Sequence to fold (421 residues):
Amino acid sequence: MKSLILVIASLVIFLALGSASKVRYDNFKVFKIRTKNVEQQQMIEKLAANSENFNLWHSGNKEVHIMVSPQKVIHLQNYTRAYSLPLEVMVSNVQSLIDGEQLSKSTDDSTFGWTRYYPLSAIEAFLDEILAKYPAVTSAIDIGTSYEGRKIRGIKISYKEGNPGIFIESNIHAREWITSATATWLINEFLTSTDEDVRSLAENHDWYIVPVLNVDGFVYTHDTDRMWRKTRQPVNFSSCIGADPNRNFDSHWMENNGASADPCAQTYAGTEPFSEPEVKAIADYIASIKERLNILIAFHSYGQLLLSPYGWTGDLPSNYDDLMAVAEAYSNAVKAMPYGTEYTYGTSSGALYFASGATNDWAYSEQDIRLSYTIEFRDTGRFGFILPPVQIIPQCEDALAGLLAFVKKADELGYLEVKYT
Fold:
């Protein structure tokens, strides 16, 4: 009994310390800064480098969203005033949004649902349950192992042989929780929906879905720092941790200012291409099945954008018109939903910013997957990465409507011909 009491006491202390060690963002603000040119945009971006007081949330389309500590608000105001850059508060207290994410304790607490966000362990339990319940049409995907030794898991849904394949990568950036929520919702819909169009979408395509790629970073966002973006592998010549996995693919790596060589930067590309084990693992897996894949989609947030190659250059891909036609179909279908969510689209470099070494460029250029996209989900900055749980299902419904139109247009354009025999 005495030993049991000691164990319980130790556990209480451990939990208390764990809670106390969480990074807090009390009175941190997010500002929208309107810029007139790329030079001004990059000038604001540099504020976020090597500083705990600034964190870049979004940059592109002549505006930058930047999170600022209470101690540096006046500094930012003076800085932008000196260059006559309009400044607008988007989020007045980041911690209040983070606290609000955890307030939704609803009827799905005992079972996996989509009215709140879940940690990695719950997502893995959901996958186990799906695999056990639908063994005839689902199979486990073992992508590989993360730096900290976690399994990177996925699921394949296949109702019959001979289907064209669609690959979905999700939560490569740790703090983008809405992406794994959407991925798991889609898995459930593809297996349970009775809607005729959804059934056709599910049964006539093979779906390869990885709900959480950056498993170490995702766990870290739940346990320690909600705003963490990168992987968790140490950098041997720096005190800063991790790399941006969406700058680490071996496709025009570190070209044209599309990533950073600074280990402390949010867009640090790593020491070399595929330096991050999570990225190397998913690249190896995709390469092993590329003959079965017609489409690749990387789920991200936020901005409400559909981004095609290229991110490393302003040049247009050879099938640009088709890529835009498919993106337009997605955008129109989502806007027609009751929520009226508006998506814009273009190349990554044209519609957002230069980003070399990204998943969609690598899939397009190195694996010949001719329809490869990044989709940036809700919203446009009111909540940013901390999308309230009440918006999970509306976001998921938008995504499904968009995918239905996306795949239909891809088929019309001849991109769903089976590539293997």
Notes: The chain has two domains: 29-100, 110-230+243-412.
